[in-house]
Design brief:
Blueprint (H helix, E strand, L loop, with lengths): L1 E4 L2 E5 L4 E6 L6 E2 L4 E5 L2 H62 L4 H31 L1 H32 L2 E3 L4 E6 L6 E2 L4 E6 L6
Antiparallel strand pairs: 1-2, 2-9, 3-5, 3-8, 4-7, 5-6, 7-9
Helix pairs in contact: 1-2, 1-3
């Protein structure tokens, strides 16, 4: 951040904070990107680290949810197929028991046994249908998990934006030389609190002196 007056460039701060180091004095030659002034960056650095940890947490949560989706999909698909097979077997048993009962012309005891077989087969069928409904309902968890997975995207974008701003703030706490040149004036000392826009140094490029 610089303002040009003739061939002199005034360097100012973009961020507030305490000056922790002044690396040059008036008259020093400085190379392009050489550090001139450092502003306390502890809070900014901690914020970047915290956001990095939160972003890494998003990745771990995404992996966990994806694994749960895959597991739930496999388990419920298997359960549904198993229950459908049980229903087909139960339906066949009901049909067989009914036919047997219809053909009976023997004793009352034998007829009663066939009747119980029909009732038992029908109960098995109803139970198989009920467990199929439960298995299909379990697949509803997939919708919940996929919704959670989709919500991670916007959350990650928000954290990435915060991280970019924090990284920019961290970068702005090191004032560097914009070109190969000479330090003309230094307006701050170590321990001084500076504010955004405050002039810190004046420098010039000897190659462009008129």
């Amino acid at each position: 951040d610089a303002r040009v007056a003739a061939d002199i460039v005034a360097l100012s701060s973009r961020v507030p904070g305490w000056v922790t180091a002044v690396e040059v004095i008036e008259g020093d030659a400085a190379r392009k990107d050489g550090v001139l002034v450092r502003i306390d960056d502890r809070e900014s650095r901690l914020l970047v680290q915290e956001l990095d940890a939160q972003i890494a947490g998003i990745d771990r949560r995404r992996e966990e949810i994806e694994a749960r989706i895959a597991l739930t999909d496999r388990q419920t698909t298997s359960r549904i197929a198993s229950k459908q097979a049980a229903i087909r077997a139960a339906e066949a048993a009901v049909a067989a028991a009914a036919i047997t009962r219809a053909r009976l012309d023997q004793t009352r005891a034998v007829l009663e046994t066939a009747k119980q077989q029909v009732l038992s087969a029908q109960a098995d069928l109803e139970n198989a249908r009920a467990t199929l409904v439960e298995a299909e309902a379990a697949r509803g968890e997939l919708t919940v998990l996929r919704t959670q997975l989709a919500e991670l995207g916007p959350e990650e974008q928000r954290l990435q934006s915060q991280r970019e701003r924090a990284a920019l703030d961290l970068k702005d706490r090191i004032i560097v030389m914009p070109f190969d040149g000479v330090v003309d004036r230094v307006f701050v000392d170590v321990g001084e609190y500076v504010t955004p826009g405050q002039r810190l140094l004046m420098v010039h490029d000897p190659e462009h002196v008129r």
